Amino acid sequence: MHTLGTSALRVLMSVNILVSASTFSSSVKGKERSLTLPAEANTSLSVPVDTKAVLLCPPDNSTALLVTWTISLRDQPPCTRAYRRDSNETSERNCTDERISWESRPDQNPALQIDPVAITHDGYYRCEVAAPDGLFGHTYCLCVLVPPKVTLFRDSSGTVVCRAAAGKPSAQIFWTPRGDCHAEEEPLGNGTVTVQSTCHWEGRQVSNVSCSVSHVTGNKSLFLELKTGDQLSLNLTILYITSSILVALVIVGFIWLWRIGCCRKC
Length: 266
Ligand SMILES: *[C@@H]1O[C@H](CO)[C@@H](O)[C@H](O)[C@H]1NC(C)=O
Ligand SMILES: *[C@@H]1O[C@H](CO)[C@@H](O)[C@H](O)[C@H]1NC(C)=O
Ligand SMILES: *[C@@H]1O[C@H](CO)[C@@H](O)[C@H](O)[C@H]1NC(C)=O
Ligand SMILES: *[C@@H]1O[C@H](CO)[C@@H](O)[C@H](O)[C@H]1NC(C)=O
Ligand SMILES: *[C@@H]1O[C@H](CO)[C@@H](O)[C@H](O)[C@H]1NC(C)=O
Ligand SMILES: *[C@@H]1O[C@H](CO)[C@@H](O)[C@H](O)[C@H]1NC(C)=O
Hints:
Elements: H1 6-16, H2 25-28, E1 40-48, E2 53-55, E3 66-73, E4 79-84, E5 89-93, E6 100-102, E7 112-114, E8 123-131, E9 134-145, E10 149-154, E11 160-167, E12 172-176, E13 180-187, E14 193-200, E15 208-214, E16 220-225, H3 228-265
Parallel strand pairs: 1-9
Antiparallel strand pairs: 2-7, 3-4, 3-8, 4-5, 6-7, 8-9, 10-11, 11-14, 12-15, 13-14, 15-16
Bound molecules: 2-acetamido-2-deoxy-beta-D-glucopyranose (NAG) (6 copies).
Residues 88, 107 line the site of one 2-acetamido-2-deoxy-beta-D-glucopyranose.
């Protein structure tokens, strides 16, 4: 312990409150509660849902005497995971989510892993390290991204609807060609948003429309041919009229022939 720098020792002692079965916790308890960290860097991370995320804890080398991850998620008490090199022990407090764990062996790499990332993992992840040459702290702000489900269809009234369902953050919808459009956003409560845009192209010869959905997880374009339905019914109408005329002509023809035959007899 004499080899520790004073600042490193202070952190060791203050975090000691969290680490059970420690040899000197009784002398320190209540004295050191706040950490003063000289080096601080914050990173914003955007991670797609259902993937695996690894948060590195700099300094990423094995000189750390004590590593502490503090995970602050919305509506949950902060969870703390710590690793002490002197006793080669890990400990945790208030950590109930099994998807968040050490990436591998904390004695080799103090990285944290989230696998798979869920929408509830939005929040702050702070890593604190006490090493012989100083203290290091790094805070990640994690933002989970959810790609929206995109559909383009005609509803029962014939209005064209483009929907980007349950995306996070909310998606943006663009139409080609531009029409008379109306967009609505519906938050779903779990942080995702459904965006829906309905369009009319009144009095214009529009046969093909495309809806482009712009989202951080990737853009998507869908096409819809508007005329197919009308064209089909028009063709059917023409067929119907033509066959009706033919039948009428045949009947008239028969009547005419019959009358000629009848007159000859007379
Ligand atoms: C460990 O990382 C810290 C911070 O990056 C650095 O100052 C220190 O020299 C590194 N130690 C070794 C043994 O690589
Ligand atoms: C654990 O959660 C409880 C509330 O559920 C809180 O009072 C306590 O301070 C938390 N412990 C730590 C170490 O964060
Ligand atoms: C620390 O403990 C783990 C098992 O808990 C063991 O595999 C590893 O070799 C130990 N590391 C050291 C440096 O003693
Ligand atoms: C969010 O909530 C909506 C509606 O309940 C659901 O359809 C969607 O799958 C949820 N998204 C995630 C990522 O949990
Ligand atoms: C409508 O768009 C699709 C997809 O780009 C294309 O294959 C089709 O030929 C277009 N139809 C018309 C009538 O422009
Ligand atoms: C998606 O579209 C937006 C604008 O429409 C553009 O700025 C962005 O670069 C596009 N992203 C991708 C991944 O293609």
